[in-house]
Automatic annotation (TrEMBL):
One Pfam family matching this protein: SNase
Domain TNase-like: 92-250
PANTHER family, per database record: EBNA2 BINDING PROTEIN P100, SERINE_THREONINE-PROTEIN KINASE 31
Organism of origin: Sodiomyces alkalinus (strain CBS 110278 / VKM F-3762 / F11) (Alkaliphilic filamentous fungus)
Name of the molecule in the record: Probable endonuclease LCL3
Signal peptide bounds: none
Record's keyword terms, sorted: Calcium, Endonuclease, Hydrolase, Membrane, Metal-binding, Mitochondrion, Nuclease, Transmembrane, Transmembrane helix
InterPro entries named in the record: SNase_OB-fold_sf, Staphylococal_nuclease_OB-fold
Primary location: membrane
MF-aspect GO terms: endonuclease activity; hydrolase activity; metal ion binding
Family to which this protein belongs: Belongs to the LCL3 family.
Length: 289
């Protein structure tokens, strides 16, 4: 009997003969015989076929996630100042309609993200009544600008307070503006640099107040938000002061800045409140006698 040559092709021929025999045995197996374990195991799909089946599912999931993120970031309406996330400040802007003007440097904004492209004005309506707008607007204060204080709580207003409020109303009331938000102040108002559409370019709402002498630049020593307009605002204030426009038309000795006026009135109000509390406490003691 000849011995098999280890370096020849007999090994491969033996493997092919075994595979042929197993195939022949499989073909010759009777019809009623149970299947083998190999036949019961699921056969994997070819890679290309699996990719074709899973690609639509993957693209749908990614597309849905992208739409959700886009909606949350750019189309979701912000109803109030407290709803604004901290990471929005100094990074984002708010587009909306001005529903009311409180004084010469503050107003209320109804956020309309996406503008007309998102259906605002023709598919989605902005409420018009005060009751319908309650709790749905954002109070905004102009950054770097301080207008004269108006009359409130029985206190008289400053000169040119009505003129400043009238200008702001004529400029932005019932119009759409874009507010670049910087921070939230102690009164829960959003401090922002505000622009309104003009021709041919958009217009900074706060700058004309300074040019016409209807406001001063904000006087706080720290924490003032300028929106990159500090030099422009202060230059406009100096020109109005040199021309003696608006609030600068009074004698320098009689001039009281809005910030100083507010501090003075707040001090008087606190003093009155303290007197009322003292009188109440005295009346309680007298009741014991």
């Amino acid at each position: 009997m000849p011995w098999p040559w280890p370096f020849g092709s007999s090994g491969s021929s033996d493997k092919s003969n075994l595979s042929k025999k197993s195939k022949e045995e499989k073909d010759e197996s009777p019809p009623g015989s149970p299947p083998s374990w190999n036949d019961l195991l699921p056969k994997p799909d070819p890679p290309l076929q699996a990719a074709k089946e899973w690609t639509p599912v993957f693209l749908t999931a990614v597309g849905s996630l992208a739409v959700f993120v886009f909606y949350q970031s750019y189309l979701k309406r912000i109803p109030s100042a407290g709803s604004i996330q901290d990471n929005y400040f100094r990074r984002r802007s708010l587009f909306g309609k001005v529903t009311s003007v409180g004084d010469g440097d503050g107003f209320h904004l109804f956020h309309t993200p996406g503008g007309r492209l998102a259906g605002w004005g023709w598919l989605r309506k902005v409420p018009e009544t005060r009751s319908a707008l309650k709790g749905k607007t954002i109070p905004v204060r102009l950054a770097g600008v301080d207008a004269p204080e108006g009359a409130y709580f029985g206190q008289p207003g400053q000169p040119f307070a009505q003129e400043a409020r009238a200008y702001l109303s004529d400029c932005i009331l019932n119009r759409r503006v874009r507010a670049y938000i910087h921070s939230r102040d102690q009164y829960n108002r959003v401090v922002a640099t505000v622009y309104v559409r003009g021709f041919p370019f958009r217009k900074d709402v706060g700058l004309p107040l300074l040019k016409q002498g209807l406001a001063t630049t904000y006087e706080a020593k720290s924490g003032v938000e300028w929106g990159g307009m500090e030099k422009v605002y202060k230059a406009a204030e100096l020109k109005a002061r040199a021309k003696r426009l608006g609030i600068w038309s009074a004698k320098p000795s009689d001039f009281v800045s809005p910030r100083s006026y507010k501090k003075e009135k707040q001090g008087q109000q606190q003093e009155k409140q303290r007197e009322v509390e003292e009188q109440t406490e005295k009346s309680r003691w007298w009741k014991w006698f």
